[in-house]
Write a structure and sequence with these properties.
This protein is of the alpha+beta class. Helix content is 27%, strand content 31%. The protein has helices at 87-100, 128-141, 168-173, 199-227; strands spanning 6-12, 15-21, 30-36, 39-47, 60-66, 112-120, 151-158, 161-164, 176-182, 187-194. A six-stranded mixed β-sheet has the order 1-2-3-4-6-5. A four-stranded antiparallel β-sheet has the order 8-7-9-10, sandwiched between helices. A hairpin with a 2-residue loop joins strand 1 (6-12) and strand 2 (15-21). Helix 1 (87-100) crosses helix 2 (128-141) and helix 2 (128-141) runs parallel beside helix 4 (199-227). The longest helix is centred in the C-terminal third of the chain and has 29 residues, at 199-227. It is globular. The model has no long low-confidence stretch (mean pLDDT 88).
């Protein structure tokens, strides 16, 4: 069965995030392309046909990769191919894993893989929060019993204004670098760096992030209602 092609554009402040499914990786259980500007991330979710026997944990693998071709470069000279994952890839994989791992149905013992691959990278938009959103969207569209749809955003504070998913240049001027993941009901993960901001400013940044997350989650839920697969039942 060919996945239905659906695209949603979500206006967040001055920026637009698009989520598209049914175009690439059609054999995956769930796949989406998340785009902001000219930065694009393909995220797929796949699971094994049968549960893994003899384990009492969730066998989840999250792998985020960004290859040189995404920025228009091809490795040359002595190194002809990509090397081991750099720190950015390792940390982003953990950033994706942390908010989604607790949201799988209890008793889910199927080998599950979330693969996020950067297709295109511009010089303005970071890929990490797009990959978090993409992982949730891919799982929402798949038959994996994922209990809560989430999304990820970054919040900056420039000249007293809160910016959702600020550009690299804006982040250099920002007093706050806050990565937030959450559902429509609440926040599930916060990572922060700041330059002497007040508690009230952090609280306001979290509220701003949650408002943006709710809009993204609503778009993902709408896509899942139209193109999502029936969820598998799990015995805990």
């Amino acid at each position: 069965m060919t996945p239905q092609a659906i695209k949603r554009d979500i206006k967040i402040g001055a920026r637009t995030i698009s989520i598209e499914t049914g175009k690439l990786a059609k054999q995956a259980d769930g796949s989406v392309i998340v785009r902001c500007g000219d930065t694009m991330v393909l995220v797929t979710a796949c699971h094994a046909a049968s549960p893994r026997e003899g384990i009492d944990f969730l066998p989840l693998t999250v792998d985020y990769r960004e290859y040189a071709y995404a920025s228009g470069r091809i490795p040359g000279g002595f190194f002809k191919r990509e090397g081991k994952p750099p720190e950015k890839e390792v940390l982003t994989s953990r950033l994706i894993d942390r908010p989604i791992r607790p949201l799988f149905a209890e008793g889910w013992r199927y080998e599950t893989q979330i693969i996020a691959m950067v297709l295109s990278a511009d010089t303005e938009n970071d890929t990490d929060v797009l990959a978090i959103t993409g992982a949730s969207a891919a799982l929402a569209l798949s038959e994996v019993p994922f209990q809560k749809t989430i999304a990820g955003v970054r919040v900056g504070l420039v000249d007293g204004q809160y910016l959702i998913n600020p550009t690299f240049e804006q982040r250099k001027q920002s007093k706050l670098d806050l990565v937030v993941a959450g559902s429509k009901d609440g926040l599930v993960m916060v990572e922060a760096g700041a330059k002497e901001v007040t508690e009230a400013q952090v609280v306001e940044a979290l509220n701003t992030a949650h408002a943006a997350i709710k809009k993204i989650v609503a778009a993902i839920d709408d896509m899942a209602a139209k193109a999502g697969k029936p969820k598998l039942s799990v015995s805990s």
